[in-house]
């Protein structure tokens, strides 16, 4: 078979490991020829490709980013976008397409298959861990480890200067990274999009902590966290061309409020894209590899309209429709259970 592969949306540790695994099993086991589309759907539209082989993917297992390049966008943005996809599939003689992406990319893949019959298999990826249907997405544990390492280092400087450190991590709609990094890093408080926060309650908690003689605190904030109505004035939201709120900066506003209400010296650390770059953890390399193998197997089984998922210890296939228009939010039993005992 001839199989196309593309990566869409934001970059994520483990993308190259997925591609490598699909290529290795496809070429060595099935005798496939694999073609990579450059820069996501833009590459499909413009017919920009690169051949993928076992040889070309050597050394890619630990490498971050994606050798194919990635960006946001959709063939549905233009009237002839879907026709470009069909024509590219025909021109390159492709029997199927593997789409590796997050909620947006998988929604596009689902629609292309359901409405236009394009043979597609999806692979879910996001450091945010917010895709329905799978227990975990690759890239998440890497992002958590990076955030945890940063928090570990911030503890010592916070203690040296009797400071409150407000650490902003990624998490547009969910607080998976913030929750796990907060638990692993021994944070004083964690603010997530799922639960609007009250800045006064946070300041009271920090004050009580300092009254007990603990003069250093770490507050972990997901970038999508928002205050409860009327508790903290925020700047007016700005949107990008895809209709997404431009995030980043909530930690700065929170830090200013903490300093004003408590008088504690407060500093901000925004980890930003550091969480998405660099080499994936061993766990993510293994999960990515398993997803890549399962994806090429699904292509040969003609399991179109499906995506690879992790269920417990097993890799399974799930309908792409399960992920469309949904967001997998933080398990409140985990958050509340841990928060009530450890965040203080």
From TrEMBL:
Its EC number is 2.7.1.11. SUPFAM superfamilies: Phosphofructokinase (SSF53784). Its cofactor is Mg(2+). Substrate binds at residues 126-128, 163, 170-172, 223, 267, 273-276. The active site is at 128 (proton acceptor). It holds the Pfam family PFK. GO terms for molecular function: 6-phosphofructokinase activity; AMP binding; ATP binding; diphosphate-fructose-6-phosphate 1-phosphotransferase activity; fructose-6-phosphate binding; identical protein binding; metal ion binding; monosaccharide binding. ATP binds at residues 10, 72-73, 102-105. Pathway: Carbohydrate degradation; glycolysis; D-glyceraldehyde 3-phosphate and glycerone phosphate from D-glucose: step 3/4. GO terms for biological process: canonical glycolysis; fructose 1,6-bisphosphate metabolic process; fructose 6-phosphate metabolic process. Catalyzes the phosphorylation of D-fructose 6-phosphate to fructose 1,6-bisphosphate by ATP, the first committing step of glycolysis. This is ATP-dependent 6-phosphofructokinase.
């Amino acid at each position: 078979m001839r199989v196309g592969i593309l990566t869409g949306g934001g970059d994520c540790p483990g993308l190259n490991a997925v591609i490598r695994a699909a290529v290795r099993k496809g070429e060595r086991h099935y005798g496939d020829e694999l073609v990579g589309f450059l820069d996501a759907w833009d590459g499909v539209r413009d017919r920009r490709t690169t051949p993928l082989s076992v040889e070309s993917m050597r050394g890619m297992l630990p490498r971050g980013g994606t050798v194919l390049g990635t960006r946001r966008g959709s063939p549905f943005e233009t009237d002839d976008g879907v026709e470009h996809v069909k024509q590219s599939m025909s021109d390159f003689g492709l029997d199927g397409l593997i789409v590796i992406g997050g909620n947006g990319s998988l929604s596009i893949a689902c629609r292309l298959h359901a409405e236009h019959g394009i043979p597609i298999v999806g692979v879910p990826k996001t450091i945010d861990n917010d895709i329905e249907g799978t227990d975990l997405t690759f890239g998440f544990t890497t992002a958590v480890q990076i955030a945890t390492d940063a928090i570990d280092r911030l503890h010592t400087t916070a203690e040296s200067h009797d400071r409150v450190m407000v650490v902003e991590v990624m998490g547009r709609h969910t607080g998976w990274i913030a929750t796990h990094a907060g638990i692993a890093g021994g944070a004083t408080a964690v603010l997530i999009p799922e639960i609007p926060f009250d800045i006064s309650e946070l300041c009271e908690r920090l004050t009580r902590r300092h009254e007990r003689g603990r003069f250093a605190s770490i507050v972990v904030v997901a970038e999508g966290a928002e205050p409860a109505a009327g508790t903290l004035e925020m700047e007016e939201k700005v949107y990008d061309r895809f209709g997404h709120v431009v995030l980043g900066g909530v930690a700065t506003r929170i830090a200013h409020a903490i300093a004003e209400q408590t008088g504690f010296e407060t500093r901000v650390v925004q980890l930003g894209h550091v969480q998405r770059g660099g080499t994936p953890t061993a766990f993510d390399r293994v999960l990515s590899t398993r997803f890549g193998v399962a994806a090429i197997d699904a292509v040969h089984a003609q399991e179109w309209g499906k995506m690879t998922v992790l269920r417990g210890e097993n890799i399974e296939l799930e309908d792409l429709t399960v992920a469309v228009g949904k967001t997998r939010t933080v398990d409140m039993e985990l958050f509340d259970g841990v928060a009530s005992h450890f965040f203080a």
